[in-house]
Write a structure and sequence with these properties.
alpha+beta, five-stranded antiparallel beta sheet, 4 helices, 31% helix, binds ligand GNR, binds nickel (II) ion
Length: 178
């Protein structure tokens, strides 16, 4: 399996996750055109970083790599990873209310509206096409990750007042831990 090949032969590395309001989180990621081992290794390191955080998704943007790659795993057992290269979404269904958090906005959670169901079109790290339907938390998480690739964060859906309050609290925490 891909799981044993990565643990047997390649060292893992945990990647540093950028925190809001770091301006690098606003970078628009570029499409991936090269399906090499370096891309595969980046995806593996992002999965490891996501599981360690712990989180249910991670976009390359969050680890300061500005290419269109996201990883997601919403399963309880943490054994259903999705690796999406150049993802595009078709939104379906009604607005769905879910509480969202973000590894780049630690400690803050807010209820947002997202599409309840989506069709996901993406490639694998080997450049093969993948198309699947997602709903509920998986759909919410994939929408959240695709926003990161366009430099968008969940706090952008909040009022300016709430966003500013979060920004100030995080800046203060970052200064204290620096
Ligand atoms: O770990 C995460 N949890 C989460 C919960 C609800 C909606 C979206 C998410 S994604 C987040 C990880 C993260 O920041 N991904 O970009
Ligand atoms: Ni996030």
């Amino acid at each position: 399996t891909s799981d044993s090949s990565r643990t047997q032969f390649l060292p893992m590395s945990l990647l540093n996750i950028l925190q809001y309001p770091d301006p690098r989180l606003r970078t628009k990621a570029v499409p991936i055109t090269l399906y090499d081992d370096k891309l595969h290794q980046l995806a593996e390191n992002m999965l490891e970083t996501m599981y360690a955080a712990p989180g249910i998704g991670l976009a390359a943007t969050q680890v300061d790599v500005h290419v269109r790659l996201v990883v997601v795993d919403v399963s309880q057992a943490k054994n259903e990873p999705h690796v999406l290269v150049n993802p595009t979404l078709v939104l379906h269904g009604d607005a769905f209310e879910a509480e969202e958090g973000c590894l780049s906005v630690p400690g803050f959670y807010e209820v947002l509206h997202r599409a309840e169901r989506i069709s996901v079109h993406a490639l694998t790290t080997r450049g093969e096409k993948q198309v699947f339907e997602a709903e509920g938390l998986l759909a919410v998480c994939i929408q959240h990750e695709c926003d990161h690739l366009d430099g968008k964060l969940f706090v952008d859906y909040l009022s300016g007042l709430k966003r500013n309050r979060i920004r100030k609290k995080l800046l203060k925490q970052q200064k204290q831990s620096a």
